[in-house]
Amino acid sequence: MTQDRTGISPAATLAEKIEWLIQNMWPVGVPPARNNVETAAAIHTATGEDISSTTVWKLRTGRQDNPQLRTLTALANFFGVPIGYFGFPGEADPIDDDLTFKALRREVAVGVVRPEVLRAFVDLSPEARWVVDEMILAAAHADRVRHKKERAAD
Based on C-alpha coordinates, what's the Rg of the chain? Predict the structure, then answer.
């Protein structure tokens, strides 16, 4: 799968990777966190690793881009991803598609994405599929910009 490298993908910057995990790979059965304090608490509860809310904030905002191995290990364990996900793009790229498909399968399983929509997408002509691709990419970009502004205001 070709990724739009200008947007968030699992193989982006460390901050974008962590944000992508929080938005797309939050563990099933763990109540969604509303803030960095709850995110840190959920990680601690699940892994036993003491990660402060300040560390979560620094990682999510890119103010810390070289965390300790134990922090990355706790994040990998919590989100159920290989530690290599946090590596360089060349290392993380092979993991990118797998995580994207896993996140999509979860969305289908919980009813956020309807299976008939995916089937209809596959049935589209290449030209129509291109139009839908462009619409989805534009909507995703607008959504990222909106969320980035909201996070900056917090």
Answer: 16
Q: Mind listing the pLDDT tens digit of every residue in the chain (154 residues)?
A: 334 333 455 447 889 899 989 988 999 889 999 999 999 999 999 999 999 999 999 999 999 988 999 999 999 999 999 998 888 777 777 788 788 888 898 889 888 899 999 889 899 999 999 999 999 999 988 988 888 787 777 6
Token code pair at residue 136: 């989805």
**Distance, CA of 46 to chain centre:** 18
**75 near 21, Cβ under 8 Å?**
yes
Torsion, Cα 106 117 92 37, to 10 degrees, reads -50
Nearest alpha carbon to residue 13 among 71, 87, 83? 87
Among 104, 93, 106, smallest CA distance to 12 is for: 93
Cα-Cα-Cα-Cα dihedral sign, residues 26, 32, 35, 40: negative
> Could you identify the residue written with the tokens 């974008």?
16
Q: Return the amino acid letter for 41.
A: A
Taken as a whole, the chain contains a residue count of 154
As a 3-state breakdown, the chain gives helix, strand, coil percent values, each rounded to 5, of 70, 0, 30
